[in-house]
Every structure is written in structure tokens, then in C-alpha cells.
Design brief:
With 255 residues, this protein is an alpha/beta fold. The protein is built from 12 helices and 8 strands. It has an 8-stranded parallel β-barrel, surrounded by 5 helices. The longest helix has 18 residues. It is globular, with a radius of gyration of 17 Å. Bound molecules: phosphoenolpyruvate.
């Protein structure tokens, strides 16, 4: 049985005091949902404070990005060991905003995935098609292409530590959600590809989230889909009550 994982990507929001308050609320309000892995993903500057708040709770800490080198002359970058140092267990890799605004390529994503794994961080690897690609009938080709590129040279032992987040780009922050059935179909396809690349068992074990305008109002329907193991939540994760409702939907899905 795959444990649902609900992760809140706070993006570039929140000074330390706000992140502290939000993480405290999330830890308190989600405390009874032991069936779900809850992850909060604040900005780099708030990681240490948030870790202080959640370290003795069920909530796990994630970062929004990393660089693949260990240290050196890479102004502005943060290494995997630095993220471990401040208590991170997860790291988002290849978010569509990084691909779009910071020109990250599939090759970069693959380097980041491997660097994260080699330092004991669990990557949340984001893949998804744009609206143009969807309308051109390229969804499967794009999503599977990004998946294969991201997993290049990742071993069978390591791959189960990865969480894949299927996030159609056109659904992120737009209020438009893929229908739950459509998200389930694409995620099923991703799972089958992992089975082909690795094994039936690995495909059954790997957790695959949906992301894209998940809210308290649609989380139930999404989480009831058999292939969907969780959500990567942007906007709604900034409200502890809405985020907790999404965690509750995750808990209900395994009842
Ligand atoms: C995201 O940032 O990964 C995301 C899915 O954002 P939103 O929930 O706001 O669409």
C-alpha cells in the first residue's frame, strides 16, 4: 500500500514569521492524519525556522530547488548537503516554473535528481505538458519524455525514493484542474512506464502525485482515483485550513 503524500509548495511566499506561523498551524491541524505523509516546502530563508517548528511532529520538510554541485563558485545556488544540514528530507526538482522562467532542461532535472538522491534527499520530480502541447495531442509524448530523461541513470534501489508529481502546466495557478479521471489516466501511464523501465514492483511502489489548482473542494475527487497517491499543492497550501482539508482527503483515500 502506497502512503499518500500531500506536499505544500509555498513558492516565493512568506517571510520567516509567516512561515513559522503557517507551519505551526499545519502541524497542529494535520496532527491526527497519520495515514498521510505531510510535507511543507517553504522558501530557503525560512527552512531553518520551519524545521525548528516541525522537527518533533509528523510534518516533513522540503526545499523548492537545489543545485547539483557540492560547493564552490556558484553564486546564488544551494547544494544538497546544505539542504540536509537544515533538516530537509524532500526537494522539488523540475517544477514547471523553474523550467519556464529559469530555463531548466531535462538534463538539469536529471542532474538534480541524482544529486539529491546521492545526498539522501527524496526528490519530488515534476513533469507535465503545456496547453499547446496538450492541444497538439502531445501530452503522453511530453510527459513520458520528461519522465525518462529525469530518471536517466537512476538505479532501481534509488528510484523508489523519488516522488513523481504530474503537473499539467496549464493547471498550475490557473484555477483549471485536469479532470480527476484524466489525471488518473496520465498517472497510470507514468506508472506503466516506470514498470517498463524498472519492474512491476517498482512501478507499484513509486508514489505519483497530481498537482495543478488542487483545492479543498476538488481534493476528494482527485484523491479517490486509484493511481493518484497524493497532491503537490501550491496556492491552497498557504491556507492551513484548506491544506488540512486536502490532507484529510488523502487520509480518506486509504480508508
Ligand atoms: C504547484 O506549484 O506545484 C501548483 C500545483 O500550484 P497551484 O496548486 O497553485 O496550481
Amino acid at each position: 500500500m502506497r502512503k499518500p503524500i500531500i506536499a505544500g509548495n509555498w513558492k516565493m511566499n512568506g517571510i520567516i514569521a509567516e512561515a513559522e506561523q503557517l507551519s505551526r498551524q499545519v502541524a497542529e491541524q494535520t496532527a491526527t492524519y497519520n495515514e498521510v505523509e505531510v510535507v511543507v516546502i517553504p522558501v530557503f530563508t525560512a527552512l531553518t525556522k520551519v524545521y525548528d517548528v516541525i522537527k518533533d511532529t509528523h510534518v516533513r520538510l522540503g526545499a523548492q530547488d537545489l543545485f547539483w554541485e557540492e560547493k564552490g563558485a556558484y553564486t546564488g545556488e544551494v547544494s544538497p548537503s546544505m539542504l540536509r544540514d537544515v533538516g530537509c528530507e524532500y526537494v522539488v526538482v523540475g517544477h514547471s516554473e523553474r523550467r519556464q522562467y529559469f530555463h531548466e532542461t531535462d538534463e538539469d532535472v536529471n542532474k538534480k535528481v541524482k544529486a539529491a538522491l546521492s545526498y539522501g534527499l527524496k526528490p519530488i520530480m515534476c513533469i507535465g505538458e503545456t496547453l499547446e502541447q496538450r492541444e497538439a495531442g502531445l501530452t503522453e509524448q511530453v510527459v513520458i519524455g520528461q519522465l525518462q530523461a529525469g530518471l536517466r541513470d537512476v538505479s532501481t534501489e534509488e528510484v523508489e525514493k523519488i516522488v513523481v508529481a504530474y503537473e499539467p502546466v496549464w493547471a498550475i495557478g490557473t484555477g483549471r484542474t485536469a479532470s480527476a479521471e484524466e489525471a488518473n489516466r496520465v498517472i497510470g501511464l507514468i506508472r506503466n512506464t516506470v514498470k517498463k523501465l524498472y519492474s512491476e514492483a517498482v512501478g507499484e511502489a513509486i508514489r505519483i502525485q497530481y498537482g495543478g489548482s488542487v483545492k479543498d473542494s476538488n481534493a476528494d475527487e482527485i484523491m479517490q482515483q486509484p493511481e493518484i497517491d497524493g497532491c503537490l499543492v501550491g496556492g491552497a497550501s498557504l491556507d492551513a485550513t484548506a491544506f488540512t482539508a486536502i490532507v484529510a482527503a488523502g487520509a480518506k483515500s486509504v480508508c
